[in-house]
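*** Residues and shapes ***
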Amino acid sequence: MKSALITGITGQDGAYLAKLLLDKGYKVHGLVARRSSDSRWRLREMGIEQDIVYLDGDMADACSVQRAVIKSAPDEVYNLAAQSFVAASWDQPVTTGIVDGLGVTHLLEAIRQFSAQTRFYQASTSEMFGLIQAEQQDEHTPFYPRSPYGVAKLYGHWITVNYRESYGLHASSGILFNHESPLRGIEFVTRKVTDAAARIKQGKQQELRLGNIDAKRDWGFAGDYVEAMWLMLQQDTPDDYVVATGITTTVREMCRIAFEHVGLDYRDFVKIDPAFFRPAEVEVLLGNSAKAQRVLGWKPRTDLDTLIRMMMDADMKRVAKE
């Protein structure tokens, strides 16, 4: 039985990845920071809460990260832990830098010292491209992050490359473009839209305030993307891969799909609020996952219409129960 350690296991990607690994026969350990709120609801919704071995720890604390690596003796480590909400990184730039940047070093150093044969996956992000330098972004596109989140993630990405090249670790990064699901946090724009559409339909909300709805994103399904993570660590040679659908869509169009699913016109309810604009906007992100498709044999299976309708159905049920 293979052993895996997942940081950020209580997040959207952590829940889908844990389910994938359990289905493949892994013993799954999850690094969990102590919280007063219920942080395991996603694992519960996936029906796997009782199947995880939980380890207390925090990415900002090197000692707890080391203990987690020693206790789990992992064949594979998936670092999904992050302060992952871009807007919040402007309010918490130091915390974001510590968790999303320095925390990666804590984990890599623990692996180097105590478990050098472990294979490592780093969750990088399309936000590292920021002010895009190419119409479609791939592994060779220069980075130009436009938020503290993007900057911190870029540190995590390059320290992973550095440890791979300096110490020979099997360390790979997945440069994932936006990926969503019914397990997405309510603070993210896709869930914000689907939740609001459900509430408006059921008479529990009057309007939805958003920022730049003409921003374009490459949206995929988290359940598809975690398969790419696993495939990266099955390769003989570690490397970095863009994971994306190759299709870009505006927030406006995503709103149309969501509201239309419940028989509403988004134009009657969506209001533009300047307070929701970022200090430095990222206007367009569009990924080229040709390398992942060629080397890993991976490709996205879920289109945006299917994804948003899946999220709408889940939110309609949630809101009805409130």
Observations:
- The chain has two domains: 3-179+221-243, 185-218+247-285+302-320.
- The chain has a mean pLDDT of 95.
